[in-house]
Design goal:
With 117 residues, the protein is of the alpha/beta class. Helix content is 33%, strand content 27%. The protein has helices at residues 4-14, 59-66, 89-100, 109-116; strands spanning 26-40, 46-50, 71-79, 102-104. The chain has a four-stranded mixed β-sheet with strand order 2-1-3-4. A hairpin with a 5-residue loop joins strand 1 and strand 2 (46-50). It starts with a helix and ends with a helix.
Amino acid sequence: GLSAHAQSRTASGAGEIEAGDDSRPTVIIVLYRLPIIAKRVADGSWSFKWDDDALYLTSVGLREGLRDKMRLVWVGIINSEDEVQPHEMDAVSQTLLADFSCVPVFIPRETLIEFYQ
């Protein structure tokens, strides 16, 4: 199972999904990995971009085709070689939600490794 920390990070991040003034219906899409590529850059900050080459990324079509009809919110782990540190989680979550409409789920690296073995 998830550690208490992972569970609390997931719960707090999910609670921030608000439509605000957006009158479109919200569709929450849960994937194992977010359709985002995350990289730690030289100064230690994070860089994010859409992963338009991912196999499951009919998300390109979903993002483009449904943009005016629905608000899509993506939920999943971050696709990165580097682990997001606990002190970075709030800032990373806020950036991904604001810029990509993504809610990351933070699962410790050891748990991810065990999941695949």
